[in-house]
From TrEMBL:
Localization, UniProt: Cell membrane
Residues annotated as transmembrane: 20-43, 76-100, 120-145, 157-181, 201-225, 232-253, 265-285
GO cellular component term, pick one: plasma membrane
Name under which the protein is recorded: Putative spermidine/putrescine transport system permease protein
Family that this chain belongs to: Belongs to the binding-protein-dependent transport system permease family. CysTW subfamily.
Keyword flag Amino-acid biosynthesis: no
Keyword presence, Transport: yes
GO biological process, one term: transmembrane transport
SUPFAM superfamilies the record matches: MetI-like
Amino acid sequence: MSITALPATAARERRITWSWLGILPFILFSLMFLLLPAANLIVGAFQDASGNFTLQNIVNLGQPSIIRSYTLSLQISAASALGGVLIGFALALATILGGLPRWVRPTLMTFSGVASQFAGVPLAFAFLATLGRTGLVTALLFSIFDINIYRGGFNLLSFWGLTITYLYFQIPLMVLVVSPALDGLKREWREAAAILGATGWQYWTMIALPILWPSLLGAFLLLFANAFGAIATAYALTGSSFNIVTILLYAQIRGDALHDPNLGYALALGMIVITGVSNGAYIWLASRSARWIR
């Protein structure tokens, strides 16, 4: 009996590992700064000011002003995500498969890693100093080409102005996300297509893009979620005059005039659902794409 139990005991001992200690800080960080705050928001969305259960906060999300704020946020997120995908994909394609000098790629990747995290007050100030009414680019265009972009209808503190500002970190993020997929395109596929008489256009439309399509769509969803949750850049650039949902959420929880924390929790719950669906779809599409580029 003891001889029979010995292998099972040894197997259990071999399964015991201390490697879990390496990810323990990450687990604790996620618990304290992601899971517990999200759980508090979800609970608060179904409570009134006295802590009693209510669905009124969810019903209040149907107010016209809140619907407009969600719509505006969705539009800005979609526009900046689409622009980021198109420009970032072209940039990554030219760098990785375009035959540029080798030093271009590490330089671009380093810049993208930094620029994709550059947001908030510094980014807002940079764009005000560049494309504001007295910004450097605005002044140069007027003095050299006699072009006044503000007289032509451009306004940095508007839908397109905020979208252009978001592109500063959306494009580098797209470069980082799509580069592994471009690296996964095997040379043998293009050689086989050429041997069979396919043109470059046919290769890209019938082979490369269908393989890259899950990666491109997943990247769009990731960039969409990234822009939808942004607040620091928009708030620093436009203040409370631009009614996107993150600024409205801040006003409900911290503001003086619109102070209603539980409605703010409901707004945050709606954002969690939207970004959760986007990120979930991105993970699913990324797993599908990984099967081709292994």
